[in-house]
Fold this protein.
Amino acid sequence: MNVQMESFVYDDKVVRKFVLATVVWGIVGMLAGLLAALQLADPLFNFEIPWITFGRLRPLHTNAVIFAFAGNAIFAGVYYSLQRLLKTRMWSDLLSNINFWGWQLIIVAAAITLPLGITQSREYAELEWPIDIAITLIWVVFALNVFMTLKIRRERHLYVAIWFYLATIITIAILHIFNNLWVPATWTDSYSIYAGVQDAFMQWWYGHNAVGFLLTTPFLGLMYYYMPKAANRPVFSYKLSILHFWTLIFIYIWAGPHHLHYTALPEWASTLGMLFSVMLWMPSWGGMLNGLLTLRGAWHKVAEDPILKFFVVAVTFYGMSTFEGPLLSIKKVNYLSHYTDWTIAHVHAGALGWVGFLVFGMLYWLAPRIFQAELWSKKLSEVHFWVGTIGILLYIVPIYAAGLTQGLMWLTFDDAGRLAYPDFVETTQKLMPMYWARVVGGGLYITGTLMCAWNLLMTWKRRPATYEQTVHQAPALAPNVRPTVESPSDLEASGAHVANVAYRLEYFMKARWHARWEALPFFFSLMVALAVISASLFEIIPTFLIKSNVPTISSVTPYTPLELAGREIYISEGCYNCHSQMVRPIRAETERYGEYSKPGEFVYDHPFQWGSRRIGPDLHRVGGKYPDLWHLRHMKDPESITPHSIMPPFPWLLTEDLEYEKIPKFMLAMKRLGVPYDQGELDRAIDYARAQAKGIADGLVEQGETSGLENKKIVALIAYLQRLGTDIKKEPAAGTPAAVSH
Amino acid sequence: MSMPEKDKILDHNFDGIQEYDNPLPRWWVYIFWATIVFAVLYVPYYHFGPGGTVADEYQAAMKEYYEQQSAAILAMGEINDEAIVTFSRNEGAMEEAKAIFRSKCMACHGMFGEGQIGPNLTDPYWIHGGKPTDIYRTIHDGVVTKGMLAWGNLLPPADVVKMAGYVLTLQGTNPPNGKAPEGELYQPEAEAEGQQAASAGDE
C-alpha cells in the first residue's frame, strides 16, 4: 500500500507552562486553605486584616484550588495527551498560548478581586462579571483549539479520554454562561437575573455540575490516559467506558437540587436531585472499576512505583466519594449532614484524594517526559505519597467527626423537648480539637505538595540544553471515509441464519454504533450537548414555569436603599460562607432560629444568600432579635458578646465610610431585574438611606456610642440584618412606597 | 502482556493504549438497575402515597412536641409569686439558672446583672414592675421594642420561672460598674422588711 506519511512534532512547551502554573497555584491555593483552617481553629488568625478575613479568604481558597490548581492541571494533561491521542500537534500554538496566558490573567484577577471583597457571592462562581466574560472568551479559545485539532487529527477514532474532555468543554461552557447571567450595577457589582428559589436552583445546578464537569469528567479523561500509560496495561472494559460515560454525563446534570434538601426549593425538584444522585452511583463506579481493574496483573508494579500508588489512592478516593455523594443526597441523611462539616470532609476526600493525587501522579509521570530528564528523586515522590496520604486521613477523619458531632448536637432535644444545646457556640467549641487536627493534616498535605514542587524543579534543572524535538510520522486521514466498524459481528462469523433484526440487536448491544460515533467528533459533541441540555431543561423549565413553586407573600417588600447597601456589605464580606439564611422545616431548627423560611420571602433576593455551611448560626430570622447596639459591638469584637465565638472581628465596618453615591446604581440594576422601585424612590434613594442611617446612628448615640456612625458601613449592615426575615410578621403595606414602607 | 487471561483485546490502539472487550461486571449492572427501580418506586410512595413529604414530617414533629409541652405546664401548676420565690431559694435550680443567665442574659444585663445594654437587675428600680410575677411576665413575653426577647418562646416553661427566681436573688448584690437605676422603685409588700419577702415561700 502506498501511504503518504506526514511528519509532525508535539507541542510540549505549553504543557511545561501549564505544569509550572499547576504547581505554583496549587501551593498558593492550598496555603490559603491552611490559613482558613487556622482561622476556624482560632479567629486570631484573621489578624483583623479585611483582605484575608475568612469570608474573603475561603472563596479565594476554593477558586484557587478549583480553577487555578485543578484547572491548569487539566490543561496540562489535556494538551499533552490530546496531541498524542490524535497524532497531531495542536492546531494553533497561538491559541494554546492565549489559553495559557489568558487563564493565568484570570487567576491573577481573581486573586486581586476576591480579597478586595469583589464578589457575586455565588459559590465557585464568585468572580465578578468582567472576569466572567474573560473566562468565557478563554474557554472558547480552548474549545476552538481542541475542535480544530480534532479536525486535523490523524487518528480516526476518539479514545475514551477524549470523550470526557469533550464533555468537559461543552458542559462547562453551558454551565458557566447560564449561571452567570447578571445585570451589572457598577464595574465591580452585579446581580444575578434570578432571584431566591430560582437563583438557588440555578446556582446549585452550576455548583454541583462544576464538581461534575471540572473535577470529575476531565480527571476521568486524564485517568484513562495516564493510568494505562503508567501501568502499561490495557483498559479493563471498552463497553464499561461507553456505558458509564453516557450514563454519567446524562444523570449528573439532574443531581444539583440535592444541595437544597429541606429548603424553600419545591420538593419535587429536591426529590429529582436525590433520585438521580442515587442512580449516579454505578455510572461513577464504572470509572473506578475501569481504573482499578486496569491494574489487574500489574499490582506488583504498584508496590514499587509511586506514580501508580498515587493513581490507586486517587481512584479509591473517587470510589469512596462517589458512594458518599449518593448517600449524602438521601434526604434523611442530608437532614443531619447539611450545613455541617460532613460536607467539607466529603469534598476534601474528593479534592485531596481524587483530584490532588491524580494530578500528582500525572505530574510525576509527565516530568521526565516533558523535561527530558530522569525524575530527580523517586524516593522523594514516594515520601510525598505517604506524607500526602497521612495528610488526607488526618484532614478528613476529624472533619467527619466534627460534622457528625455538630449535626447531632444541633438536633438533640432534652427531656423537656427543648434544645439540648441551645447555644450555638457550644456546638462550635466542641469542634476545636478536630479543627486543630485538620490544620495538621492540611499542613502535611501541603508539605507533600512542596516536595513535589522541589522534585519537579530539580528535574527541570537536569533538562538538556535544548529540548529534543521528536519527529513523529503518521498518514493523514483519508477524507470522507465511511468509518469502519471495529468489532466484527459474531453472528456473521457464526454463519447462523437469523433474522435481520438480530443483526440490528447485535449492532446495538455490542455498541458498534458507538464505534461510528467515535469517528465523528462533531456528531459526538452534539450528542453530548444534547444529553446535557435536555437533562438540564427537564428541571429548569418547571422550576421557572410552575407558579406554585413560589407562592407570593404580600407583606414581602423590596429592601430599602440603606438595607440594599447593607446587603452589598454582607455579600462583600462573604458572610454567606459561614451563615445560612434558610431555616429548614425541622423542629430543631425552628426551635433555634424561628419560623422556617418560605419561598415567597426571597423574591427580591438577587442573588440568594441561603448559604451552604453553618460555621455560625442561621441568620434568616435574625432581624429584630438583638438590639442595634448588640450588632455594633458584636461586629467590632464578637468574643466580647459571645465568649468562645470563632467569628472574625470586623472593626473596619465602624470606620470605613459607606458609599452612599453607589446606592442608586444598585437600585437601578435591581429595578432592571423587575424589583418594583419607582423613579421617585430612585431619585431620592440617597436621602432615604441617610434618613434611615441617622435613625440607627441616633439610637446608638443614645445608648452611649460615639456619634458619626451614620456615615459608616456598620449602619447599613445593621439595617440589613434587622430587616432579615421580618417581612412575614408584618401587615401587608398598603399604598406606601414599597421601599420605605417600614 | 503476560497475563493468562481469556479477555479479548480490541484491535485498536491509541498512543499505545489498548482496551479489553470485557463484559460489564454483573453486580454493577444489577445495582444500577436497583437504583433505577428505587427511584421509580420512591416518587409514588413519598409524593403520592403514605411516605409523606417534608412538610408532613414537620407537622407531625410539632404536634408531638405541643402535646409534650402542654403536659409539662399542666404538671407545674399555677405560676404565682410564691412559686417563683420558692425557686429562688432552691440552690440546684439557681445553679442551673446562673448558667442560663451567663449564656443568655449576660450579653445585655452584664455578668452579675449590673446592666449593660439592658437595665441593671440588682437595684430595686423596675421599668416593667418588680413583683415576682411581673419579672416572670417580662422574661416570658419580652419587651421586643427594646431588644428584650420573649424567652417564653426560647426556654422551657420551668426555666422561665427559674430565671424569674434568679433575678430575685440578684437584688441588692450591688456588683461593680452597676448601671444607673431606671424605672420605678419597688418595695416588697408591707409585711416584708427587706428580704423577708422570701419567707412567704416557706408556708
